[in-house]
Amino acid sequence: MQVRGVEERIDQVLGQPLEPSEYCHRWVRQDSTRGYRKTCVNAIAAATGLSPHTVKDWGSDFSKRPQYVPLLLRRADLLNQFQQLVQNQSLPLPPDFPQE
């Protein structure tokens, strides 16, 4: 796929919302030592910059979440995918990429 095609596809995906439950399904592993919901709430809070208490108030199925949250979660999802690609493929980062 050409670079232009990749850019267009990324733009398309950025416009598609990702619901909190879908984000958790993709990025939260079931951990026997902690509850799935608590881990999910913490992951969504980290991805959105909101407090876990705020996320927890959205209800058990996150149905009371603000309208902007699915778009934030889509961006976090894409960043997670890029990060995973870099880690798994040992892809070099551009020289001007911010370091930790």
**Terminal-residue CA separation:** 31 Å
Report the β-strand fraction as a percent range: under 5%
Please count the helical segments: 5
Cα radius of gyration in angstroms:
15 Å
Mean pLDDT: 86
Question: What is the makeup of the main sheet?
Answer: none
* Helix content estimate: 55-70%
Backbone structural class: mainly alpha
Write a brief structural summary.
With 100 residues, the chain is mainly α. It has helices at residues 3-14, 20-27, 36-48, 52-56, 69-89.
Set down the secondary structure blueprint.
Layout: H1 3-14, H2 20-27, H3 36-48, H4 52-56, H5 69-89
Helix pairs in contact: 2-5
Structure notes:
The chain is mainly α and 100 residues long. The protein has 5 helices and no strands. The mean pLDDT is 86.
Could you name the key traits of this structure?
globular, single chain, 5 helices, 100 residues
